[in-house]
Amino acid sequence: MYKASSKDLLNAGNKLAVRSFSAVLMGLTLGLLVINLVLFLVYAPSNIILSSNGSVLLKFSSYTELKNFINRSGYTGYYPYYYVNVIRGGLALTASRALEASFDYSKTNVQVEGVDEADIVKSDGEYLYLVSNNKVLIIKAYPADEAQVVAEIQLNGTVSGLFINGDRLVVFESSYQGIKFVRTPDTVFSPESVVHIRVYDVVDRGDPVLMKTLSADGWYFSSRMIGDYVYVIVTTPVIVREGEVSLPIIIEDGRLKEAEASDIYYTNVTDYGYGYTTVFAVNVVDDSVEPTYETFLLGASTSVYASLSNVYLAIPYYDYEMNVETTHIVRIRIQGNTISSEASGVVPGHVLNQFSMDEYGEYFRIATTISDFQRFLGETSQSNNVYVLDMNLTIVGRLEDIAPGESIYSARFMGAKCYLVTFKKVDPLFVIGLDDPASPRVLGKLKIPGFSDYLHPYSENLLIGVGKETVEAEEGDFAWYQGVKIALFDVSDMANPRQIASYVIGDRGTDSPVLYDHKAFLFDRDRNLLALPILLAEIDESQYPEGVPPNAYGDYVWQGLYVFTVTEDSISLRGRVTHMDNNEDLLKSGYYFDSKYSVKRSLYIEDMLYSISDAKIAINDLTSLELVNEVKLP
């Protein structure tokens, strides 16, 4: 919260200088725009895909044209930092045809019903498939008294996630051994990271057999599964050496090939850093079907969303000359092994994460925040917006300047409604109507202490929010974070949303992975079940005889799973589960806590609750939470 006040001082000190410089800046900017327009008209290829808002998707005609484009932009190929927002995108996909067990069991918490997102643990109702260090473990999980590890898959790299599809297990591994590719005798490209897509036959769970490996240079970004197909998104930095430009490299079952420059899409937007984003489609059931892919030369994608038919890539862009912050969007159609580029567009501001985007009917909706860079021109520090775009990614409806001075902390689109949580001192929950795409409007709002980092639908008229409790600061225009807060919101009266129940866990310093990873959230409405991994911090009030100040941090005293009973009007604690037999790891943690006994995920099979850490799996009765069995992990 101090960051805001320090920025205020910086802005105040620079405002006069910026205003005096703005006339010169605008003149230079106009000149640069004219030069860029001339360059584009001269060098633009003939194979341009135009969308109705004037945005373009281009395809290089040759490697020479690609190289000239990169060299003309002034990009040097230096990537000291390559930002990859892992598992922040969400592909809205149809249900998998994987064989379902007859048992009732929970699945990975995903953004859109019918989607299966890769995670560090998967269940098929009888077995668990678990990422553990550099291994993948297969565990016989049900019945509980027979639980045991039945197989280990040892890997050399880092495992990012996995899927289970019937008798096929899909594993994503990243390694740093690198591969070399020689473009000329004097130019050798050696990627730092390689992504491996490994498909195993697990018809015999105790003896997995590797059936297929597809590798690509770069970093794993995101992946989802639809039917027999897994869609994998890989990002690769552009390397420039002696004027030559690297292209993505793909290795299928040991056969190395380079992507064709003439197959690579790009936009006519000059960026300050370039990277390739490649979307792969891999049939994981039929080994005779060849993988397909399409590659895009873009800035660094930060979020991914997709519907049943379209993948959307969100690429942030800041124009330092015009002092304008925008997000460029590329729509890619997916259907089986067919991947095709469709349209591109642009909206003001930047997105928070995958939940800031949604497709509904023939429209794409997106919520953005314009950050406080604008203050250098004397404008409001931050503002928030909701835009509605058609399939050409042309803006057809807009709602702007929501909660000026605040920023979006969470978003959730549900049909013709959008729910936004913004925050600075209190938590405004906005209910936004999108039934008329051309005229989005605020229907109602609720202001309460705290904020929600994650919103989850309980029903059509009820929302669960998970975030932090806050206390307003007396000395400034901000608030102090406190413990983790769970809230239940009634939005049946859209003009007057209200909080009908809440539960606060711990003091300042208490944390949960749910605040930044929705897959750690376990909820089942029929069972009235909500479970969250929690790192609990508590304040010893005896150390503050004059009262506990709101900025005081608690000490870590516990880690494990909080299990709640949630009904339509209440949140109550059912109990807690921990994997820690003592507090040794907590006592030596200091400001940062790390332990192999830290619970990361939870799930249920029938009447058993499974909590998972790097050290073991604990199996507890779902009602009483009494320990039934545990499996120590190798």
Description:
Helices cover 9% and strands 49% of the residues. The chain has an 8-stranded mixed beta sheet with strand order 1-2-21-23-22-16-15-4, with no helix packed on it. A 6-stranded antiparallel beta sheet has the order 9-10-13-14-19-20, with no helix packed on it. The two termini are 42 Å apart. Residues 1-54 and 78-100 have low confidence and may be disordered. By secondary structure, the protein is mostly beta strands. The radius of gyration is 25 Å and the shape is globular. Among the domains are: 44-124 and 155-299, no CATH class; 450-555 and 562-593, no CATH class.
Task: Report a brief summary of the structure.
The protein is mainly beta and 634 residues long.
Helix and strand topology:
Elements: H1 2-43, E1 48-50, E2 56-59, H2 63-73, E3 90-91, E4 116-117, E5 121-123, E6 127-132, E7 135-140, E8 148-154, E9 158-165, E10 168-175, E11 181-184, E12 187-189, E13 194-201, E14 209-217, E15 219-226, E16 229-237, E17 240-241, E18 244-245, E19 249-252, E20 255-258, E21 264-266, E22 275-283, E23 292-298, E24 303-306, E25 310-319, E26 324-335, E27 338-348, E28 357-360, E29 363-370, E30 383-389, E31 395-402, E32 407-414, E33 417-423, E34 427-433, E35 441-448, E36 451-459, E37 462-472, E38 479-490, E39 498-505, E40 522-524, E41 529-538, E42 555-566, E43 571-577, H3 584-587, E44 601-605, E45 608-612, E46 616-621, E47 627-632
Parallel strand pairs: 3-24, 21-23
Antiparallel strand pairs: 1-2, 2-21, 4-15, 5-6, 6-7, 7-8, 9-10, 10-13, 11-12, 13-14, 14-19, 15-16, 16-22, 17-18, 19-20, 22-23, 24-25, 25-26, 26-27, 28-29, 29-30, 30-31, 32-33, 33-34, 34-35, 36-37, 37-38, 38-39, 40-41, 41-42, 42-43, 44-45, 45-46, 46-47
